[in-house]
Amino acid sequence: QVAFFAVGAVLLLWYLAPWVLNHILNAGNVLGIAFAVVLLLCGMFAQPVTHLLAPGNHAPGAVVLKAAVALMCAVAVLTSGYMLTGLIQTGHRDETVLVLGCSVKGERPSRMLRQRIEAATEYLEKAVLSGGQGPDEKISEAECMRRELVRRGIAADRLYLEDRSTSTEENVAFSAKIIEQNGLNRHVTVVTSDFHCR
């Protein structure tokens, strides 16, 4: 029971942090929050849950619960594997960098967007800066990134702005057109936040 509560509480805080601190809510942290809530519920009903998960229990409810646990574990292993592979494969090539936007506070980057800008500065060859303007933002996320990178000494002619997107799907679709239209390297490194990789 204590383990369910402890792990559930830690995961809930971990997945709520991007939403609370940076107003970022997407499928990744929604699923994480849901998983944390399930763990907390398991803590509240620890005795019936452990009874259902006990070896040799083949009741219909037990079979469904065991299948759901196996599926969640498989998804966790696969997504963790993808994330770890991304962390290990850090070789630098002459490629296009796609920096995904994140919230802008007025005309200044949020903490998370600043982290992406810093990563792009270290890696940059040519970059597409992708992010539209939210209703509470004075400039587009792409323009905010451009200003910050130029301020850090990156030549403006190496930066291509995609400032119409309102979702990650649009970030990729619109940026692909910019890459094609400008003859940029089609080998692309995407700069985003770790939790967003999922």
Please identify the structural class as seen in this structure: alpha/beta
- The number of distinct helices, counting runs of at least 4 residues, comes to 7
Low-confidence stretches: none
Biggest sheet strand order reads 5-4-1-6
The strand count comes to 6
Q: Taking Cα atoms only, what radius of gyration do you get, to the nearest Å?
A: 21 Å
Shape: elongated
β content, as a range?
A: 5-15%
Helix content class: 55-70%
Mind sketching the topology for me?
Layout: H1 2-22, H2 27-44, H3 46-53, H4 60-88, E1 96-100, E2 104-105, E3 108-109, H5 111-123, E4 126-130, H6 141-151, E5 159-162, H7 168-181, E6 188-191
Parallel strand pairs: 1-4, 1-6, 4-5
Antiparallel strand pairs: 2-3
Helix pairs in contact: 1-2
In short:
With 198 residues, the chain is α/β, with parallel strands linked by helices. 58% of the residues lie in helices and 11% in strands. The strands form 2 sheets. The chain has a 4-stranded parallel sheet, with helices on both faces. Strands 2-3 form a two-stranded antiparallel sheet.
Record keyword descriptors for this entry.
alpha/beta; 198 residues; two-stranded antiparallel ribbon; 4-stranded parallel β-sheet
Give a structural overview.
The protein is an alpha/beta fold. It has helices spanning 2-22, 27-44, 46-53, 60-88, 111-123, 141-151, 168-181; strands at residues 96-100, 104-105, 108-109, 126-130, 159-162, 188-191. The protein has a 4-stranded parallel β-sheet with strand order 5-4-1-6, with helices on both faces. β2 (104-105) and β3 (108-109) form a beta hairpin. α1 runs antiparallel to α2 (27-44). The two termini are 29 Å apart.
